[in-house]
Structure formats: structure tokens, C-alpha cells
Design the sequence.
């Protein structure tokens, strides 16, 4: 067995290339009382399993093996494209689950095992655990924490400081239960020793094979056991039920907010600001109270968002202001102002310097640079050019009851208040519609139309570039 050269610089994760990370996620999760597998429940917008897999990935382990039950659906996909799946035929305990990974981990020198219900686990902790393991040359290493309230965790049993065993709470006597030192659920070992220890596990009093019993095995054989105590107790937070799910959610959101504040984002009221893991926000952007930044949202620098805005899977440029509005699946450029009370639905693209006033609904539309839609309008399936003025109450009638149709408005056009544009329709460059027009036919460039249905009043020529 070749031993890797431990590079202690944690920013260079290559030394763990011949390690396999094994993530246990085949448990029944009965305490969640859910039809959704436990590890698919979201924490700050990402499935729990994704957080754990991300930590393993970021730590640079050469392989990630996910242990799943035979009927698991969607868990491997949620973990990411690079995971190898191993199936635990029946949920016979964490020891049995770890053993199910043996074949998939073949060829690895070392194994890091982690429970799948630890969404707050970080890559740093995995790297430190693996590094400690190599440095101490221990037979087995595992992560511990000292908790004011250790309820629900396996306790670390020591004699004269030497680790003797991990005792599950249900099997602990009163004295052991009083121990504040707990097992976090992250282990590192040399592969050959681990597989032999797992293969010789005996069922616990509950009938399950406990992974934690390899600790007593190592201790009994006189081998060294290294422990890595977590300085940050939040990482310990497991999720067995929905109360713990809510706690993990709160902790993860705190972590996300703190990272953003440290990177130069002002959160006026962090407690009422909900930001999913993975959302990016640039320096000197101010987030006002009641804002939700969700999914794959990215916001540039110098923006002002909120109060009470919801942005999901959207991209916002620099220096843009968004008042209380809902923005979904949209791309918004620099120096835009939106709202309050706008709704941008998916596939909307807003170019720079656009102004959307209040009560504007946009759907799958492109709005060109410098265009203004000041007051209550609906624009759907439309392409609007540069420097267009859309008057109050303008509606694109994009749906004939059967099909959706497109509206195009050329650069510099002027759409009068209360215009209804019956799609499919094209309003030419520099054209204008009078107040209350119902536009049923294309309007040539520079033309002015008026009435119901709208008719051409005069043709003043091309007004391209008019603002
Ligand atoms: C486990 C530890 C406990 C530790 C705690 C920390 C054991 C026996 N106990 O307890 O010492 O303090 O985690 O969070 O390991 N799983 C399977 N197959 C199974 C059973 C479980 O894959 O047959 C998976 C679960 O999906 C879960 C993980 O293993 O992701 C841990 O299982 P769980 O039931 O949550 O263990 P705990 O009782 O919390
Ligand atoms: Ca657990």
C-alpha cells in the first residue's frame, strides 16, 4: 500500500486524490415523517445531500461514493454528476451502509466516511480530519465536538484520555450520557483496515450494524485513535427530524449571510434577509429588509435591492435598483431601475438603463437599452427595442385562447397610454400609437396609428433614435 505524501497546505487538495469519500444516505429517515428522502430536504435552497457532496468535492477526494437504498430516487442527481452510487440492500445500520461502499471504493488508499445528514459540514473539516489522520498515523480518526446539550448523539467513551468506544445514546448509561464529547459522524481510516473492521462487525443490541463499533475494535486491538475536535459546533448539526431541519436551515442561512457581509455586501437587517447557498452578490450592494435571493441568483456590485423583493434564478448587473418586486428566471443589465411592484417572469431580458415603474408584468420578453415602461403594463412574448416609451396601461394581447403570439416594437417607438397590441404584431422603428389604440395590424416605421381598431393617421417618416 503506498502512503500519500501529506501536503499540509489545505489550499492544495491534491494529496487526497487517492482517498474515497463515502457518504451514507441509505437510512430510512423515519423521524422526518416525509415521503421525500431525508437527504433531499433543502437547506438554504440546496438539497442536504448536495451540501455534503460539495464539501467532499471541495476537499479534493479522488472519488465520492454515495450509499443509497435500492429505491432511492433523485438523490444521486441531487448530489452532483461525479458521484459513484453504491446500494445498501437493506437499512441494517451505518456499519452495514459503509460496507456497501467497499467495491465502489476499490483501489483507494484511504476512506473518509461521513453521514449524509450533516449539511453544515465543511471541506475544511474534512481536510483537517484527513490531514490529522495522516500526520498521527492513527488506525482510525474521527471528528468530535463538546456540546452543552449532547442529546441525540453517540458519546465518546474515554479511559485515561484514550478513546475506548462510541456509545449510542440509546445504549448509554447515565454516566456516559453525561459526557459532553460526542461523535459527529465523520471518520477517516486506511482502506484495508477499515474493510476488515467493518466485515467483522457484530450486530448491536438494536440489531443494526453500527459503524461506530469500529472504534472499540481499533481500541481493543491497541491501535491509535485520533480525534479531531470541531471548533465550530454548528457543523455538528445533524438532521433527524424537522425541528433539526429548521435549526440547520437557520445556521446555514447565518453562514451565507456572514460570508456575504464579510465580502462587502450590506445587509440592513440580516435576520429578515433570506439568501440561498450559492447566491453571489457583488461589493457595495445593499440588501434591504425582507429580501429573498433564491436559487442560482447573481447580483452585481453597487445595487440596491428591496425592501421585500424576491429574486429567483436571476442575474442582475451593477448599480441596478429593484424595489419590492418578484423576479424569476430573468437577466437584468446595469443601471436598471425596477419597481416597486413589478413581476418579471422567466426568460425576461432587460438591457442596461431600462426603467420599469410600478405594476409592470413582463414575461419572456426582451427590453432594449434605455426603454421605459413607467406604469401598470403587461408585456409578454415581446421584443422591445432601444429607447422605447411604453405608456401606462399598455397590454400585449399575446394569447388568442389557443396559441401565444409575439409582439415586436422597434427602436424609439412611442406607445400611447392604454394601447392594446394584438399579437402577432410589429410596431416599426419610431412609430407611435395614440392613447387607447387597439393595434390589430403591423405599424410601419415612423407611422402614427390611432383608434379602435387603430388606423394610420400620418406618416412622419423614420424617427429612429428619438427619445
Ligand atoms: C449516527 C451515529 C452517532 C452520531 C450521529 C451523528 C451510528 C450508529 N451512530 O447516529 O454516533 O453521533 O450519527 O450525526 O452511526 N444510514 C444508512 N443506512 C442505514 C442507516 C443509516 O445509509 O442503514 C445513513 C443515514 O441515511 C444517515 C447516516 O447514515 O445519513 C446516519 O444515520 P442516522 O440514522 O442519522 O444515525 P444517527 O442515529 O443520527
Ligand atoms: Ca443522524
Sequence:
Amino acid at each position: 500500500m503506498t502512503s500519500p505524501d501529506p501536503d499540509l497546505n489545505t489550499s492544495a487538495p491534491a494529496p487526497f486524490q487517492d482517498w474515497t469519500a463515502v457518504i451514507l444516505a441509505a437510512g430510512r429517515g423515519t423521524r422526518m415523517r416525509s415521503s421525500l428522502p431525508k437527504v433531499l430536504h433543502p437547506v438554504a435552497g440546496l438539497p442536504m445531500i448536495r451540501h455534503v457532496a460539495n464539501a467532499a468535492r471541495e476537499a479534493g477526494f479522488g472519488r465520492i461514493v454515495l450509499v443509497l437504498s435500492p429505491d432511492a430516487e433523485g438523490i444521486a442527481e441531487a448530489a452532483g454528476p461525479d458521484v459513484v452510487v453504491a446500494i445498501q440492500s437493506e437499512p441494517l445500520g451505518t456499519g452495514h451502509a459503509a460496507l456497501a461502499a467497499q467495491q465502489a471504493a476499490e483501489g483507494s488508499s484511504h476512506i473518509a466516511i461521513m453521514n449524509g445528514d450533516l449539511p453544515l459540514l465543511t471541506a475544511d473539516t474534512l481536510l483537517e480530519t484527513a490531514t490529522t489522520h495522516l500526520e498521527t498515523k492513527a488506525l482510525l480518526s474521527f471528528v468530535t465536538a463538546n456540546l452543552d446539550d449532547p442529546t441525540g448523539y453517540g458519546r465518546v467513551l474515554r479511559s485515561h484520555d484514550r478513546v475506548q468506544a462510541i456509545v449510542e445514546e440509546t445504549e448509554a448509561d447515565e454516566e456516559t450520557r453525561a459526557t459532553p464529547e460526542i461523535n459527529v459522524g465523520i471518520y477517516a481510516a486506511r482502506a484495508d483496515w477499515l474493510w476488515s473492521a467493518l466485515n467483522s462487525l457484530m450486530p448491536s443490541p438494536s440489531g443494526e450494524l453500527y459503524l461506530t463499533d469500529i472504534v472499540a475494535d481499533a481500541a481493543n486491538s491497541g491501535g491509535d485513535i485520533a480525534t479531531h475536535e470541531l471548533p465550530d459546533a454548528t457543523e455538528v448539526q445533524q438532521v433527524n427530524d424537522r425541528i433539526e431541519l429548521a435549526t440547520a436551515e437557520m445556521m446555514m442561512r447565518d453562514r451565507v449571510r456572514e460570508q456575504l457581509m464579510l465580502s462587502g455586501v450590506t445587509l440592513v437587517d440580516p435576520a429578515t434577509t433570506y439568501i440561498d447557498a450559492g447566491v453571489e452578490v457583488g461589493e457595495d450592494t445593499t440588501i434591504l429588509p425582507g429580501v429573498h435571493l433564491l436559487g442560482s441568483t447573481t447580483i452585481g456590485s453597487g445595487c440596491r435591492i428591496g425592501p421585500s423583493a424576491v429574486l429567483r434564478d436571476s442575474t442582475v448587473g451593477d448599480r441596478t435598483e429593484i424595489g419590492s418586486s418578484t423576479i424569476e428566471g430573468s437577466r437584468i443589465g446595469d443601471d436598471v431601475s425596477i419597481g416597486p411592484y413589478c413581476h418579471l417572469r422567466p426568460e425576461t431580458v432587460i438591457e442596461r438603463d431600462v426603467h420599469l415603474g410600478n405594476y409592470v408584468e413582463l414575461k419572456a420578453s426582451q427590453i432594449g437599452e434605455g426603454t421605459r415602461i413607467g406604469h401598470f403594463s403587461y408585456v409578454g412574448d415581446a421584443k422591445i427595442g432601444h429607447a422605447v416609451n411604453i405608456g401606462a396601461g399598455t397590454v400585449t394581447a399575446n394569447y388568442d385562447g389557443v396559441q401565444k403570439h409575439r409582439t415586436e416594437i422597434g427602436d424609439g417607438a412611442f406607445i400611447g397610454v392604454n394601447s392594446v397590441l394584438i399579437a402577432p404584431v410589429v410596431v416599426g422603428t419610431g412609430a407611435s400609437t395614440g392613447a387607447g389604440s387597439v393595434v390589430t395590424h403591423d405599424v410601419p416605421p415612423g407611422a402614427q396609428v390611432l383608434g379602435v381598431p387603430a388606423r394610420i393617421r400620418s406618416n412622419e417618416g423614420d424617427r429612429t433614435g428619438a427619445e
Q: What stands out?
A: The pocket of calcium ion (ligand 2) is lined by residues 115, 117, 238, 240 (CB under 6 Å).
